[in-house]
Amino acid sequence: MLFVCLWALMFVLYLPAAKAGFVSDFTGWLQQVRYRPFWEYMNRSGFKVVSMYQGTQFVTWVYYQLFGASEWAWHILFITLHTANATLLYILCATLLRDAGVEQYRPIGYTGVVLFCVSPYVSEVVVWEPSFHYLQGLLILLLVLVWVQRYCYTGERRYVWYACVAYLFSIHTLEVFYITPWLALSLGWFYKGQLPQGKAMFGRVARYFFLPMLLLFALRLLEYRLLYGDWVSRIGSQTVLSLQDAGLGKPLKYLFHLLPLGRYLPAEWHIGSASMGDLRSNIYAFCDSGVGMTMFYGGCVSCFAWGLLRYGKMSGRAKVALLLGVWTFIALLLITPLWFGDLLLIVYDRYTYFTIPFLFMLVAIGIWSIRGRYVRVALLVVLLLANLRYTIQVNRYWGKGARIVDRLLHHLPETGDRTVILLNMPESMHGAPMMSASDPSEYKLMRDLLVPERPIKGKVYDALSFNMVTPDDGAHAQVLNDSTIRVKLNQYGTWWWYQAMGGHDYENEDYKLRINPGGDYDLTLKKPANGYILFYQVGDKWKQVDMSKTYEQY
C-alpha cells in the first residue's frame, strides 16, 4: 500500500516533466544504443569519460530493446524505481527504529520517505534519463542493507548470496559501490547491541558481507588499473589527490542546500530596504573557510565520538540517529571530489541522491523527537510545503524547457544544402538541461535521433548557447557587413555557453567567433554568405537572418 501511495504521489508531482528527460547526455547514449555494435555499447567505446558501467549498459540495453525511446516508458520506469527506493528506505529504517524500541517507528518512517519523495533535489535523477544509474545504484545499496538486516535476524545464508551477487553486479555500475561495504559493516555493528545474537552476528556480518565485498572492491580497482592505468574511474586519481584544492567545504555546502533549501535563496537578500548582499555566496565562502570546515568536521567527529562513548546509555532513537548520521557523513564524503553546482538550479543535484534518504530520515527522527505536538506538526507542515513548492517549480521548468526543445526540433525552416549556423540555442531553463552548443552539433544529433523523418542535408553548427530564465528569452542579430553578424541577448541575467562551459572565442573552417566586452559576439563568415543560412532563437521559434538588411533583427 505504501508503494502504491508513493507511486501515485510521484506520478502526479512529476507529470509536468514527463517528457523532459531526453536531453543533454541522453542523445549520446541513444546514438550508442541504436547504432553501435552490442559490445562497443557495453564498454562505452567512444565516450570521453572512462568508466566501467557494463552492468548499467546491459540493463538499459534490455529496456531499450523492449520499449525503444518511448518518453512515457522511461518516465514510468524512473518514478517506479524512485518509489521502490523510497519503499526500501522505509522497510530498512522503520525496522531499525522498531528494533531499537521506538514506538513511533511507523510515522517516523513515513515522514522520512515522504520528504525523500518531495525534495526538489531528486528531480534531476527522476526526470533526466541519463541519471538511470543513480536510481539503480541506490536500489542496489538499499537491497544490500535490507538483506544484511534480514540476515541479522535469521542467519540464513541466502541473504549473504543475495547481497554479494548484487554487490558484484554493482561494481560495474555507478561508483556508489565504494561505500556499500562500510554501510553494511556499520549496520552489523548496530545490531550487535540490539539482538540477543547480535555479538555473534556482527562477526558474521564482517566475515560474510564486509570482507567479501571489500575483496570485490579491491579487484574492481585492480581491474580498472590494469585496463586504464588509473585507480579511480570517471574522475581519475588526481582529482581525489587534489581534494584540498577542490574544497573540503562541499559537504557543509550540500547540507546548506538540502536542509534550509539554500540553493533556492535569492541571489540578493534584503531586510526591509537594506541589501544584505549575496547571502548564498557568503555562506558558500564560509563553508569553504578554515573556520567553517573546522566547525563542521570537528562537530561531526565530536558527535560520533560522544555517541560511541555513551552508546550503551543512549536511547534507541538516538542510536538509530547516530547510525543514520554516520551513513549521511559517508555519503557526503563520497561526492566531495565531484563538481558542485552553485550557479543554476538542478545541475549536479544528482550527486546528493545517496545522501538525501538517510539525511531526511534523520530529520524525521528529529521532528518526532519534539515533545510539543503543535510545534512538531507546524515544523513538519512547513518543511513539506517548502519542499513541495520548489519541486513543483523545478518540474515546471523541466516542462517549459521540454516544450521549447520539442518545437525547435520540429519547426526549423527548410535549409536546403546550405550550411546551417544556429546563432543561439537554449542551454537550460533555470538549470533544467535543454540544448548545449557543441561541436559536433548537438542540435543536429537530437534532430537526427528524435525527428529522423526530417533530416538536415547540410552541415550544422551550434554557435553558442545561453541559459534561459523565461520561455520568451532569446537573442537578436544585426548584420554588420556581407560577412559579419553581431548577436545580442534580449534579456539580462543570462550569459553565453559553449561545450557546457562559459562561452569563449573560437573558430573553425566556416566562421570565426569573437565575444565582445559588452556580452554580445561577432560571427565572421569565411566563405560567401549565400552558402549559409543563419538562424537565431527567440522563445520556441527560429528566425532567419536576412543578410541584406543591416538593422537589428528581432
UniProtKB/TrEMBL annotation:
The chain crosses the membrane at residues 72-97, 109-128, 134-153, 160-185, 205-222, 320-339, 351-368, 374-392. This is DUF2723 domain-containing protein. The keyword Protein biosynthesis does not apply. Residues 1-20 form the signal peptide. Keywords: Membrane, Signal, Transmembrane, Transmembrane helix. It comes from Nemorincola caseinilytica. It comes from the Bacteria.
